Amino acid sequence: MLKNKLPDTLGDTPSRGNAENPSFFDRVRFVLERPSHPGNIGAAARALATMGFSRLYLVAPKRFPAPEATAMASGATDVLDHVVVVDCLPDALKGVTFSAGFSARPRELVGGIMPLDLFAQTCVSQASILNRGQPLPEIALVFGTEMTGLSNDALSYCQTAVTIPANPNYSSLNLAQAVQVAAYALRVASGNTTVWQASREKPATFEELEGLKAHAKETLTKCGFLNPKNPKKLMPRLARLFARAKPEHDEVNILRGILSQMDRLMDKNRQENPSLNHHPAKK
Fold first, then answer.
1. Cα–Cα distance between 189 and 130 in angstroms, integer?
2. Is the pLDDT assigned to residue 265 strictly greater than 80?
3. Helices marked H in the chain — which ranges?
């Protein structure tokens, strides 16, 4: 793995692409200023890959490349292979039109302060406006060191400060965790919220549900749980339960099978104990 030089122009920036929204995702760079632990670099690369981002910049990392980074990337080696390493923050911000420094600590002199969700929406809005026949903006998210966070000097290079809403009594996030939360917020703001869906089997028909209710009434009466002379609201409540659950064809069959097994056991018990046939329902 080789350290990549800073691209001479924006057009030289390598595009790994994102099938969902390549223009926006390829124009966002995540900048880690002076990271001290290579494991956090790898974990940050993994965080970016899971959210569809790929552009990671390192400002004077203490140690990189490193086996720990590769291990913590957990397969996100494409992000690591294209990391851009620079000597100072201004180099990492070349060509950027909108930059934000992440900080949990209040600062006196900042260009502005945004909560993360508003920042993410602003990034997407700017991209949407400028995408109408114009080049998309270059956006940079800047994160400070693991021990002290982003310095005031580094923050002065950013147009705004961004903070992640957290417990005010303990707002410290691991570097890679902060990157993950920020990347997630940008992904959601961009509209990429599709998740996997559980497969839907054949739904039960009206006749099958009616058969289930009739079978349940018969079995519950036989076992003494339902008193036909005083049924109260048991069957309407069961009907409402079945309607709310929207059971599938196979699920109705399973429930009918359970009721049938209960019927068989009760019939067998009555054959072995004839006196039970004279006991009225208890309810």
1. 16
2. yes
3. 22-25, 38-51, 67-73, 77-81, 89-92, 116-130, 152-155, 175-189, 206-222, 234-245, 249-272
Burial of residue 165, with CB atoms counted within 10 A of its CB: 0-12 exposed, 13-18 middle, 19 or more buried? exposed
Residue 232 has pLDDT above 70, yes or no: yes
Query: What fold characterizes domain 206-278?
Result: Helicase, Ruva Protein; domain 3 (1.10.8)
Domain boundaries, the chain: 10-189, 206-278
Name, in order, each residue with C-beta under 8 angstroms of 50's C-beta and a sequence gap of 6 or more.
76, 180, 183
34: closest CA among 73, 92, 76, 77?
92
Stretch 187-212: mean pLDDT: 89
The CATH number of 10-189 is which of 3.40.50.10890, 3.40.1280.10, 3.40.50.980, 3.40.30.10?
3.40.1280.10
Residue 234 in contact with residue 216, Cβ under 8 Å?
A: no
d(CA 42, CA 275) in angstroms, rounded, equals 74
Residue 77, SS3 per DSSP? helix
Among 141, 175, 157, 159, smallest CA distance to 61 is for 175
Q: pTM to 2 decimals?
A: 0.72
Q: What are phi and psi of 94, to 5 degrees?
A: -60, 130
| pLDDT at res. 2 | 42
Could you write out the DSSP letters of every residue in 100-120?
EEE-SS--SS-S-EEEHHHHH
DSSP class of 233: T
